[in-house]
Recover the amino acids of this structure.
């Protein structure tokens, strides 16, 4: 895999802070860039520093220590001339390499797709073709293309087809091109690219779905935060999760991500809230039942935070996903048991217990059956509405609503019936 | 994929039946050969018929209809001269092809491994190097090898390094070689192979783990049956399953496979036996409890038959596996519910119900946690003894034993504790 050169030497003219160290959802811009590209498979990084180089270098040392990633610091004393000098600074270290700006934030899919598109034979710029979507277009660098090549590039282009995203792949040819540009007193990367373009040696690759943004102002920083948060909800999220829980949990996660709270800790907290809350159901008194209902809905909301923080901070792990899933089922089981007890206190009939078993079975098996399907068929089961209605967000929300009518048990059984119907329906339709 | 030519023209001299139609665990030898190679990826078959060609051809028509497989019948009127004439009979149809004898039975892995080893450039014979393991060695064809080539082959070889398994891959060169052999009045495939060997054009591939057998006598047919049955138990089978249930269920399956009973029907029967049997637990009377215990152990044994029949008759499907797993969990849940009720009849305490929830949760979650692990990690969890003790065979067997002490409930809770400990232990050790 080719290395990544991160241009982090400039002075954030419009933000008044040391750019690489600006925090975005719990990670510095530099940290975020490195972790995002690492996830795409890149394992060697060069960070070119200039402005406040001591502070930035120290931060790089921390990152190396914390993540065990191979990162070299390259000093560029000529950084004030233009960011082209930062590319020239790595000349002795790399031959073929990716280049990105430390303050450009890309969705992980965008990075992965670009990295995978590179064959290493030619210089390529990732461009945005949906021009109307670009944030602060007047500040953007415009690109003119013809067939698979770039023929002109610059901020002032009147006619253009795409926008420069600031993510490049270069071969050694860039060094000569930047030197040539510097002889004309133009020392930016795009000046070098313009020269390559004039020689027919610069290609483009169009960004597919996914955000990217140049975090050049405080306002852009806010927008970047929103774009990241918006990308987190999953396609398979249930209705309550999508329309209610996520809106709240994302707010919580965006605060919590600034602290050193691991996703697994959040999983545990959500579990404990569910358990503690469900104890309220044991008394059978109306007021306590309502409190129990509120607590499990809170647990349901918090349950989103582990995955959100994991994705915000590149902390997702298969262990975390496994742990979360197993603990969720345990929490569901304890809630179901206690709500069944709540029902028993009210009705004092054995049938209540049997219905409790029925409910517990439905809640676990709806998920179990999906997992087993996925294991056997090697793909997710796309079950449509029925499946969306037999998920955790819905079942906890039903009990929450039910508790206000002092009917948590009845609501639980009703939603359990739906779960069982879904299981049987899926077994039937896949036959 | 290269086609397979099945030599089915000869007269079973030592068996007194039409060889291709001899039944082995519910399938004719011809059917078994075709399904086994189909599973290894082969999709075009030529069956060379001679002796009783009308009967065999009719059977091929049935197979084509039943399985929708592409099979052509090739008639060889010269079959009495030797099986080399059967290879010559396909001359106009194939250029590069596998050849097997209809009465040679191979374990599916052996076939798959050989098929995958073939690059199509040279003639190869699959040989057995573990000579002492060969059934009826005196009847076997011996092979002498040097480096990667075969240098001599024949029944009468005094010195030899391996045994001919009767599974070949040929290029067109075999046709000329057999013709050359026929000019010397030798008309068997091995005579052609001998000539290729003399020209340094015959290669060998050593069979890896797995059985193969030449079903030439009634005795060999029995041995073949045993070899197939022995290959069925799975590595992940629990202790009770391995040492007790399989021994009985394989006997049942080896009878049932002669009828048109689908694996999914067996799954359903096992489920119904479990439900019907567990109803006995509801009365709380000792005698009925014992009957309930016996019924669930019977259900546990029958539960093996679906997979066994599926593997014996090449009927395994991902739907079948999914259906079986989901129904097993439902059966477990109903048994657990009814045994809990049995406990409640005896003790009349609410804690019994709570312990019932605890047990149900443990039984489903032990499996759930393993599945989720497998999904996330892309590999099975190798949990050792703890995992072997938290499987279905053990839990049903515990309740069976417990029922004799009128303590089905207590035994159930005890084994459930073990399940929960295993779940927590696995989450802990993988951290």
């Amino acid at each position: 895999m080719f290395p990544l050169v991160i241009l982090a030497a400039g002075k954030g003219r419009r933000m008044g802070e040391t750019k690489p160290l600006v925090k975005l959802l719990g990670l510095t811009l530099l940290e975020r860039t490195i972790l995002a590209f690492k996830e795409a498979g890149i394992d060697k990084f060069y960070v070119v520093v200039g402005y406040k180089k001591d502070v930035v270098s120290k931060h790089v040392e921390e990152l190396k220590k914390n993540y065990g990633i191979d990162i070299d610091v390259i000093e560029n004393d000529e950084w004030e001339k233009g960011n082209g000098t930062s590319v020239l600074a790595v000349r002795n270290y790399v031959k073929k390499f990716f280049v990105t700006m430390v303050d450009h934030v890309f969705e992980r899919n965008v990075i992965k797709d670009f990295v995978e598109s590179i064959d290493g034979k030619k210089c390529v710029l990732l461009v945005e073709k949906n021009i109307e979507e670009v944030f602060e277009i007047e500040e953007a660098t415009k690109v003119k293309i013809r067939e698979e090549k770039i023929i002109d590039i610059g901020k002032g282009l009147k006619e253009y087809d795409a926008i420069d995203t600031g993510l490049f792949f270069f071969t050694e040819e860039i060094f000569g091109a930047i030197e040539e540009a510097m002889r004309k007193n133009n020392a930016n990367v795009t000046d070098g690219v313009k020269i390559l373009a004039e020689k027919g040696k610069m290609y483009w690759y169009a960004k597919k779905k996914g955000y990217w943004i140049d975090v050049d102002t405080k306002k852009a920083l806010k927008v970047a935060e929103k774009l990241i948060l918006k990308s987190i909800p999953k396609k398979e999220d249930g209705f309550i999760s999508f329309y209610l829980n996520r809106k709240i949990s994302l707010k919580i996660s965006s605060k919590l991500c600034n602290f050193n709270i691991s996703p697994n800790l959040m999983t545990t907290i959500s579990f404990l809230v569910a358990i503690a809350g469900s104890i309220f159901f044991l008394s059978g008194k109306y007021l306590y039942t309502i409190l129990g209902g509120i607590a499990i809905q809170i647990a349901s909301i918090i349950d989103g935070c582990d995955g959100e923080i994991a994705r915000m901070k590149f902390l997702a792990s298969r262990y975390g996903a496994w742990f979360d899933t197993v603990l969720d089922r345990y929490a569901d089981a304890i809630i179901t048991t206690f709500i069944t007890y709540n029902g028993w206190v009210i009705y004092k009939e054995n049938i209540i217990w049997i219905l409790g078993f029925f409910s517990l079975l439905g809640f676990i098996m709806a998920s179990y059956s999906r997992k087993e399907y996925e294991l056997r068929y090697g793909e997710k089961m796309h079950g449509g509405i029925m499946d969306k209605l037999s998920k955790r967000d819905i079942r906890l929300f039903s009990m929450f609503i039910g508790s206000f009518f002092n009917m948590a048990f009845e609501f639980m059984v009703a939603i359990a019936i739906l779960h069982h119907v879904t299981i049987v329906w899926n077994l039937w339709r896949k036959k």
Remarks:
- Chain B has two domains: 4-223, 234-429.
